[in-house]
Amino acid sequence: MSKPNREVDHYFSAEPKSQDRFGLIKAHLCGYKFEFLTSSSVFSKTRVDTGTQLLVESMMLPQKGFVLDIGCGYGVVGIVAGTLGKSLRVVMSDVNMRAVRLAKRNIMMNRVFNAEVRYGNCYEPIGELRFDAVLSNPPISAGMDTVKAIITGAPTVMAAGSSFQMVIRSKIGAKVLPELFEATFGNCNVLARESGFRVLIGKL
Ligand SMILES: C[S@@+](CC[C@H](N)C(=O)[O-])C[C@H]1O[C@@H](n2cnc3c(N)ncnc32)[C@H](O)[C@@H]1O
To answer: Which atom in ligand 1 lies closest to the alpha carbon of residue 11?
Structure first.
């Protein structure tokens, strides 16, 4: 008899072991229609997450320059950013290889030609690039240490005058995370608030 596999997949696993079970989401966001291929062991497989939706509908994008979607999952935030800002260069990154593969396919499927996807932990895959906006729907399930690392590490990849925008659940970290924004960027404002989520912005 074969032993049960006790290894558990998470949406932030580096290479999920579960079999791909694909899904297709059709979404209407910011006045555009999108289609997203999803699969098992990626975040929000069956529908665009409410926090993601609030982030894309309230995010402030620069006219031109570089935008980073850190922890891109199957790619909603970066794909919407690249669609809204045709002069932008969008970089998307994730620590889950399956999410990276899906985000690459979704870029092609939605005909977004100004975006690319990189694999790796936090800001490691970024190299020398500096961004005018960094966008994040953070991996709360991976633990607060990861969320905090995404916030405190952001200035290392941010250009002067840029912004860091993160959607959070109002119940989780509503006090701690604004304090960390203040400590990291010297300021913190709320861009939007809806359905138990809020979008925080810190500017360099
Ligand atoms: C809450 S999900 C958001 C996904 C996508 N941005 C969205 O809104 O649908 C967070 C994402 O962060 C990724 N993640 C977790 N830990 C990470 C890390 N250390 N570095 C980069 N990405 C990470 C997860 O794999 C997951 O795809």
So the answer is: 25
